[in-house]
Amino acid sequence: MPGKAGRLLFTCAIGSICTVVICNALHRPTAPSADKDYTPAVSLPQRAAPKTPPAPTRTTESATVDETFSDAAQSLGIDQGTIATLTEAFASNVDMRRDLRKGDTLSVVYDRPQGSATADDPPLAVRLTTGSSSHDVFLYRDPNGETRYYAKDGKSTKPAFSRYPVAFTRVSSDFSLRRFDPVVHRWQSHDGVDLAAPIGTPVHATAQGKVTFVGRQTGYGKVVMLENPPPYSTVYAHLSRFAKGIRTGGTVQRGQVIGYVGETGWATGPHLHYEVHVDDVAMDPLTVDLPGDDRLHGEERQRFAREAEALSAELNG
Ligand SMILES: [Zn+2]
Taking the model in full, what pTM does it have? Predict the structure, then answer.
C-alpha cells in the first residue's frame, strides 16, 4: 500500500483533474477489499407503501436505574409527561426519592409499529423492581380514548382521598386566608377547617401516607402530620390522644384511625382542626380537588384483567 499512496500523492500534485480521477479510481468497488471501512453503496428498490399498517410488535425493554427514575425512563424513550404520570402511579408503593437504589430496574412493554425503534404511545405495562419487590402498573384506554395506569387488580393507581377525616356535627370554622382568632385575639389566617365533634370521636387518615410528625405543638396541641401521595400533605390537630402505633416515620392507610378528637392547644371547644396542603400550600379542605377512586368495574374491568394478564406474562419474560 505505501507504493499506492505515494503514487496518489504524486499524481495529485500534478493537478486537480488528476485528483478526481485518482479518487474515483480508489473508490471504485474492488472485490474483495481488505479495507474494513469500505461499504459499497447499495440502492434498494423502493417498495410500495402497504395499504394497511403492519401489526405492531410487542416488545419488552429494560433499563437499570443509575441516578433517578426519570433518567431510567428517559433512556427507554418515555416522554416527560408519561414519566410524571408513572411517578404518580408508583407513588403509593415507591417513594422515588428514598426507596430507589442504584441497580434497581425499570421494564416496559410497548406495542410498536413494525420496524420503528420508538413509540409515541405510552408503555402498556411498566414494572419497577426495587430491591426484592416489584411493582407493576398497566395502561388502560377507556372507550373515550383516555389513558390511565391501574394496578393489576383494576385499582386505580391514583391514590384515593377521603374528603372528611371525622364524623363531625358541624363545620365550626371555615378555611380563610385572614380571620380574627378568638383565642389569641389576633387577625390571622385559618389554614384549615374546624370540624366540631364530641371528644373521643375517632379521626381517620384521609389518604395513605407517611407520618412526618406526631406530638405536641403550640397552638395545634396534640397533632398528627402526614405526607400523603404527592402533592398532598395533611394535618390533624387539637387531638385528645393518638391512636396506638402512630409513630413519626411510620405509614398509615386511608381510613386508619390516627387519633381522637379533643381540645388540646388553642381550641375553644372539642373539634378537629384539619389542613390539606397541596405542594405545601394550605388549601380549603372542603373544596380542594382530591384524587378520587377510579376503580374499574364490570365489563371494563374484565377486559382490563385479560390484557393485564397477558402483559404480566410479557414482563415475566
Ligand atoms: Zn382550626
Answer: 0.54
